[in-house]
Sequence to fold (288 residues):
Amino acid sequence: MKIPLRVHICVVGFELDRISGAAIKEKADKVYLISQKENDKGRIFFIENKKRLINEGIIVEEQFVERINELSGIVSKIKSIIKNEDEENAIYLNISSGSTLSAIAGTMISMMFENKRNIIPYYVKPEFYYENIDKKTQDEIKEKNNRLVPRSIGVKEINEILTFPIRLPNEELLIILKHLQIRENEDEIVTKKDLIEFSKQNKYLNNSREKKRSISVRLKDKSENKNSKSSSKNEKSKQQARDYAWIDQNIINKLKDEWNLIDVKKIGRYSCIKLNEKGKKMLKYLND
Fold:
């Protein structure tokens, strides 16, 4: 049986104690240090934090993003780290180790995973900020830190941040959104009929449709003779009506009116569905 690990994730800014100092104080087993892949102005802090953690016997994993000032890249990287960690492990997100964007990313992810994983965002309050101390003490700190000038010194306290779950579209809506994205990337038009056919091929959607269809739409039989030709036509017509009612009530209306993630445009006799800008942005943050 594996022993659960205390895993810390830190976007590295111009800090030392707030990163390695806090992780050591919290008895971390493993620390992910995230930095910019190239032209990283804070790389020396990345190297120094890594050295301090390794000296304490803590496993260090290096992770890099293309741009440290791009929210979606940070969100995607942290999500990838979490998904690759064992579910038993406790994940601690340091939201004070980097920029405001990294703090937003950590908070967002904590809220996204609120009901799925044991994720604890925390804020490190320093003893004092470098700019607020006298010149003599500044020189002493530089000497102690190999001439590095961190933005803050010491760890006064570590506070866990209270989060609440983010409300996200349910699974069937997310499946449709991702399908729309794929079709759009292939420059294909998607109609309601296309989505109905896709829902029949997708196991999750097909099961969902079968469960909800009888509840969402109640059509009366217009014929008592189930074996007659006209009855067969009626049944086929009613089946199509149920399919369109299901796709409208459970997918289209929710994505368009409740979430505002798609646009529906009438082209001839067809209703064409495509992601709007809000839908594209949501998928950008939710996609792996």
Q: What stands out?
A: DSSP finds ten helices and eleven strands in the chain. The chain has a mean pLDDT of 88. The chain has two domains: 6-160, 171-286.
